[in-house]
Amino acid sequence: MTLAELFAIAERSELAGIDALRRHPHLAGAIEVAGDYQQGEAAPALVHAAHRGLGGLVEAVLDLGGAIDARGLGGGTALHVASWCGNAETVRVLIARGAPLDLRCEAFGATPLGWAAHGFGPDGCFPKRDHCSAAIALLDAGADPEIPNAAGQRPIDLVASPIGNPMRRLLERRGSTP
User: Fold this and answer.
1) Which end of the chain, N or C, is less packed with Cβ atoms under 10 Å?
2) Residue predicted with more confidence, 41 or 22
């Protein structure tokens, strides 16, 4: 079984995907291209599960030895990817399992909170999900809203317009200065 086959099952039924993973535990450490979002780059099972918002499968991968800080597209972790996609429940699962909150990705030098802010914007992921709840989970866990990316942009700088959008208001309320 490949990761692509595992995720085809998991997208129909997350419980069936978890059962398939338990029958093929080697997939918890597998690194494959298993999604068009990867742009031809391989990523570990944990990152693929986080991208798809499969929190139960994320937990199963971790239970079977998947590395919480494994990196995928752009050198982001599963927490980066879940934040980018606005998969708030998966963000909460990863935080509860000890995902590093302020680890920077390799490509942009951005934290998961930066990925959530950018994912919320017009150049972010589609479809839009619950990016603000993902950001709240990160902030509640202690993520620093003032850490800039490699270009010197803080998360609030990535949602500069329109002024007053929900992500910007959230970051302003939580201590980020415009």
Assistant:
1) C
2) 22
Q: Give the residue, 16 or 127, on which the prediction is more confident.
A: 16
Question: Which DSSP helix (H) or strand (E) runs through 45?
Answer: helix 45-52
Cβ neighbors of 2 (< 8 A, separation 6 or more) are 30, 32, 34
Which string of b and e fits 99-111 if b means at least 16 CB within 10 Å?
bbbebbbeebbbb
**What's the CA gap between 21 and 27, in Å, rounded?**
7
- pTM across the whole model: 0.92
Across all residues in the chain, what is the average pLDDT?
Answer: 90
79 CB-near residues (< 8 Å, 6+ apart): 50, 91, 94, 95, 99, 100, 101, 103, 112
- Residue 126 is classified by DSSP as S
Which tokens in the block code for residue 167? 């992500």
**Cα 94 to Cα 112: distance, rounded to the nearest angstrom:** 11
Q: Give the CA angle between residues 44, 126, 68 to the nearest 5°.
A: 25
Q: Note whether 112 and 120 are within 8 A (CB).
A: no
∠ CA 98-39-139 to the nearest 5 degrees? Answer: 30
Percentage with pLDDT > 90 across the chain: 71
